[in-house]
Design goal:
TIM Barrel; disordered N terminus; about 500 residues; disordered C terminus; alpha/beta; 15 helices; eight-stranded parallel beta sheet; three-stranded antiparallel beta sheet
Amino acid sequence: METVFKGRARARVSLIHFFVRRFAVAVAAIFLLTDGRHAHVDLAPVEILGGADVDTLAQRPNVNGASSSEVIADEQWRMVKTRGNQFVVGDRPFYVNGFNAYWLMILAVDPSTRGKVTEVFQQAAAVGLTVCRTWAFNDGGWRALQKSPSVYDEDVFKALDFVASEARKYRIKLILSLINNWDGYGGKAQYVKWARDDGGLNFTSDDDFFSDQTVKGYFKNHVKNMLTRVNTYTSVMYKDDPTILAWELMNEPRCTSDPTGNKLQEWIQEMAFHVKSIDPDHLVEVGAEGFYGPSSPARLPANPNTYAGQVGTDFIRNHRVLGVDFASVHIYPDTWMSGATLEAQLQFVASWMEAHIADAEGTLGGMPVVFTEFGASTKARKSGGFNATTRDQLIQAVYGQLLDSTRRGGAGAGALLWQVFPEGTDYMDDGYGVVLPRAAATARIMSTHSKELAVFNSRCAWSCRWGCRREQQSEDVDDDMPFVSRMNLA
């Protein structure tokens, strides 16, 4: 999307400009009030932001055709903050359309596959995606970032540096997850193993990760080493880099040994404080799946099944922690509701999202909520399984719920598809992968949603591009008013 502010707005507006501005705002308001769900997206050749079709995705050097060497001016590449239940960059709203690509660091280590990182950023930027969530960990094992506690492979760390550098070139912000709940890429089990091997300590389960002082010390050191790392490509310390949108404490934390949730809650409190003590400028999120727990019994029926309320997580309680800036939720109807009909799964998606958006706005006192993983496998061979067409219906359903929230200035701040791959990486696909150049209908849906969000994100563009002064606007509009409402007053 073309940068709007290329110079200061003139102090006064001519009469012609006044009427032009009013006409443009009226047109925008009509568009914004129109139902933007994609239930009837036509199958014309996909239109990519900037005018490219799907066949050019693999060759596109950058969004809007810009060279990857064109770096955004520092004053325009700023930290994402929260204001009430919305993300903001400066004084502009920042609604998110994004994706997951957990593998970026691993492929960036090898020069023969490093180009895949650039390729996926090119393709994502071409359909307007602005946020990528990826792993900032690989503990023990193959191509480990952290080979043992606080012992790092510099080549792997440089690979993560490269990922951050490339993301900036393509105007994509990163959510960096700091550890895995699961065994993949080491996870909490590797930390417990390190402590057991080093000290002969007697652990009862991998959930001791959340309470053992030695293990927590290992993790705190990793957090410090990550946040204070100086990027070898940009010379910017990670904690000062606006390319990073947020730190995620853990991917999908669970503590099944303590269904009360007390053990995990204490860990979240301790680690959120630890991250903020080192880096008070970046946002922090838990990484939770969004399951309701004992603190909100009235919400337990909203969970996809009974077991979800017994895994030691608690959406409401976990997100009341000081230092947690926005809520995270995942959406996997295909695995959570295996065997259910497509209609039942889509109904669940709607109610699941509505419940969490409402709680973010109300019970949690007003904070953004991001659906940091959502998707469906097209490889599952079971009743109710998804194919490419029905998966697109799921994507449309998620986007539709978010647009409903966005139009009223609600807490639904965005969603990140699990997951996007470039060409030639089919060997990594778990069934959830989308290769944009080969998925024309999906790319079109994502591009359309990006355009719709871009209208909201360019609130200042509509009010300033016609020559008005931002200072005049700030005098007339209450800063606490939701951005969408303010837009209608412009």
